[in-house]
Design goal:
36% of the residues lie in helices and 15% in strands. A seven-stranded mixed beta sheet has the order 6-12-11-10-9-7-8, sandwiched between helices. It has a four-stranded antiparallel beta sheet with strand order 13-14-17-16, with helices on one face. Strands 1-5 form a two-stranded antiparallel sheet. Strand 9 (183-189), helix 9 and strand 10 (214-218) form a beta-alpha-beta unit. It has 426 residues and is of the alpha/beta class. It has 13 helices and 17 strands. This is Kynureninase.
Amino acid sequence: MEFLNTLEFAQQLDAKDKLAKYRDEFLFPHVNGKQVIYFTGNSLGLQPKRTKAYVDEVMDDWAKLAVEGHFYADKPWWDYQERFAAPLSKIVGALPSEVTVMNTLTVNLHLLMVSFYQPTAKRFKIICEEKAFPSDQYMIKSQVRFHGLEPEDAIVEIKRRPGEHNIRLEDILDTIKQVGDELALVLIGGVNYYTGQVFDMKTITKAGQDAGAYVGWDLAHGAGNIHLELHEWNVDFAAWCSYKYMNSGPGNASGLFVHEMHHNDLDLPRFSGWWGHNKERRFLMEPNFDPVRGAEGWQVSNLPILSLAPYLASVEMFDEIGMPALIQKRDQITSYLEFILHEIDREVKGHFEIITPTEPKERACQLSVFLHGEGRQLFDYLMKNGVITDWREPNVIRLAPVPLYCSFEDMYNFGQILKAGILSHR
């Protein structure tokens, strides 16, 4: 499609947008009395209006039923998490038995590494990407040290080539071959938080497993954002947060995936807990752990229902829409934002550098932009003028045009505010 940098053209795109009605399902902050242009759904998604009813339902059941809410609430608490299996499995491309919700993201990755990182004297190395999200770096280093190893010996970071912003697939595959028989685990962010690069998870998973290693993915920026086929790709495990693209609220519950090939492996180590025990026998209070045969067998504690309620509201919205429709709009609105950035760059004779890959299959709902020649004052100008975006040192802004609630008119208006901000200090 040939884009135009005009308000009329943006409004025409909105008029044709089949998902436009969902914008009214969300609550927006306001700056200077106007609804903001919200680009930080890759950090915290907006609140769906329907969320309050889901939370109120739990509060009402607690008030009226107290402990009996576990069994007699309209959505009984003791199996509340089972309502996520069908919609989440569609979002991440899994079998319903392969997904569940519990804890938070880094906690779940730690618990999964108990099962899938068992270093030996020969096979002990972990491959991860350079400039992963810091929490992943801290987690991996602490796991390595827990096993009595030194990070510099056990962790292999795949680096970007000099002068390049993204990691090449061939470099990942070459590194897997080089580490070879010493490789125990490949653990990478499916979408790099800084650049927005989407990795070829299918190819990397096969390469890691062919080398004799387990392969897992941190999908914090992937779930609800990109096309996933975790079951078909034979991924060993994955985990994701729910508060970015899935709009479940700050710091909320995490989802996880464990491939069915591991469900009956009772020799696979795990940290066990009551809620992972055989559901039919859970209240017999038996002394020996008998795990649920599925991802729920990795659950540890009684689930935080008040946290799950907003997440359930969100996944049911995703189920209404379907990932194919979301991805179709995501690609169009991201391309339009890219066009707007290039147009404004040309008009102000600037030098923006989009460091996110240009190929749609290698990017998702994020453009990371180096604002060469611009400083923090431009970011501050955007924020004061109703554009909520994200700043990363030294001078990168991350823009996430989330298809659920961003409009094409937002993209046009952002361009005009960006242009005014740059010209204001010249």
